[in-house]
Amino acid sequence: MSRLLPALTGLVLLLGCASEDPRLPQRMYDDAVKLSQQGKSMEAKTLMAQIATRYPETEAGRKAQKDLHLLEAFLRQDIQAGARQVRSIMKTTSNALRRYFAKKGEYPQDLNALLPDYLDKMPETPWGHPLFYRPFVGTPVTEVKDRRGVTTQKFNTKLDRFQLVCLGTDLAPQGKDLAADLVILDGEFVEGATLATLPTPQPNR
Q1: CA-based nearest residue to 179, from 189, 193, 169
Q2: Which segments of the chain does DSSP mark as H helices, in order?
Q3: Stated pTM of the model
Q4: Cβ atoms of 83 and 178 closer than 8 Å
Q5: Considering only CA atoms, which of 100, 126, 129 is closest in space to residue 113?
Q6: Local structure of 60: helix, strand or coil
Q7: Cβ neighbours of residue 135 under 8 Å, at least 6 residues apart?
Q8: If we measure between CA atoms, which residue out of 34, 61, 28, 66 comes closest to residue 47?
Q9: Helix ranges (DSSP H) in 39-162
Q10: In 15, 30, 118, 174, which residue has its Cα 20 to 30 A from 190's Cα atom?
Q11: What pLDDT shows up at residue 171?
């Protein structure tokens, strides 16, 4: 009996440590509410979903399930507003590039050249990421015939086309919602947000 008692005591202690604190669901819910109040709707939604899934029979679980619907509605509004804002910023930048081209005859090598005559400040997304800009030569090499019919190659160096890209909140290709990519090619948004393959050889500038 003296040998069995310590073993039983150790098992009880182990089981006690393994059981969860009954206050945990409410603490998690309170944390989710704080995240929501801080404007971190996506993080709040993720935590609320965990609470609703793991603790459906608790008061915190029931409240989390109700709050999930509200958070999803807020997130949809945030995504729509963010997408409109990004498209507006990109279109403003694209228009500035077109005005620069009309005056200079080619696009600038970087967006800094648009300041301050064409833009007041460097464009960036609402979440503080830069836009990716890439000017290029549309037709690097053309063939020209002289009066004798001899064909020679002419190498063009004028930056007459451009891409303007937003890689979304994750700064990675593809993605969904606010992580989705947006691409403008020569002033127009491209459906499917695919990057154009540059014709070669591009000149070294």
Answers
A1: 169
A2: 4-18, 24-37, 41-54, 59-104
A3: 0.70
A4: yes
A5: 100
A6: helix
A7: 106, 107, 108, 109, 159, 161, 162
A8: 28
A9: 41-54, 59-104
A10: 118
A11: 80
